Amino acid sequence: MKTGMKVFWQVACLLLMPAVFALAQSQWQATEQVETYPITGDSGVDLYASIGERGPKVGSEVRAIAHTNFKLTWTRKYEPQANGACTLTTARPRLIIIYTLPKPAIKLSAELQKKWDVFIAGVRKHERVHAVIITDMVKEIERVSVGLSVANDPKCEKIRTELQAKLGEISKAQRQRNADFDRMEMSEGGNVHQLILQLVNGR
Questions:
Q1: Radius of gyration of the chain from Cα atoms?
Q2: Looking at the domain assignment, is residue 162 inside a domain?
Q3: Three-state helix/strand/coil letters over 25-91
């Protein structure tokens, strides 16, 4: 939902490294943070217009209703093998998922508050799906990382190039999954479309 009066949802994907195998995956859990930006208005139309003016920028020009971003770092251990290969024996992620959501800066009337509560609950539900997609991506990176081995790499240099190639594939798949989800949600009659209608028109 690109703004003007069209605001779209997009997840920004900022990826750091990965790799191959499924054994010995570590147990980890993502940390979640919520940030808000202020909006004003005494009607659904005004609130939505304020979102269009103040929503977080995605890319250079497009504003979003809500934004799900993440920070991802890895603890990795590369081990040279006796046969000259290099094996990635440990790959533990640290994932922080960051939601940016709109929040009215002033107290709303009882009727408008009810409409807003429905709208923001739908926004949160939508963004949580993006969080699941991000988490699935990190699990896939972990799966292909642990146990990755490259022959004739005693200094563990070739293995990093191998990781980058796999990262590109996983990142592309994650972006496509996000795009497909947004396309479905934002199409006419989709969940996002309905949320906006309910806020603006009360339907």
A1: 21
A2: yes
A3: CCCCCCEEEEEEEEECCCCHHHHHHHHHHHCCEECCCEECCCEEEEEEEEEEEEEECCCCCEEEEEE
Q: What is the pLDDT of residue 195?
A: 94
- Tell me, yes or no, whether 3 lies in a domain: no
Kindly state the average pLDDT of the residues 8-26.
36
pLDDT category of residue 31 using cuts at 50, 70 and 90: very high
Q: Which of 26-35, 65-74, 87-96, 131-140 has the lowest mean pLDDT?
A: 26-35
Query: Does any domain span residue 128?
Result: yes
The DSSP line for 100-163 is EEEEESSPPPHHHHHHHHHHHHHHHHHHHHHHHHHHHHHHHHHHHHTT-EESS-TTS-HHHHHH
User: Over 50: is that where the pLDDT of 4 sits?
Assistant: no
Number of domains, the chain: 1
Q: Specify the pLDDT at position 186.
A: 85
Evaluate whether residue 155 is within a structural domain. yes
Length of the chain: 203
pLDDT reading at 58 higher than 90:
no
Tokens of 76: 């990795």
Exposed, middle or buried by CB within 10 Å (0-12, 13-18, 19+), for 94?
middle
Domain holding 133, by residue range, is 10-201
Burial class of 99 by CB neighbour count within 10 A (0 to 12, 13 to 18, 19+): buried
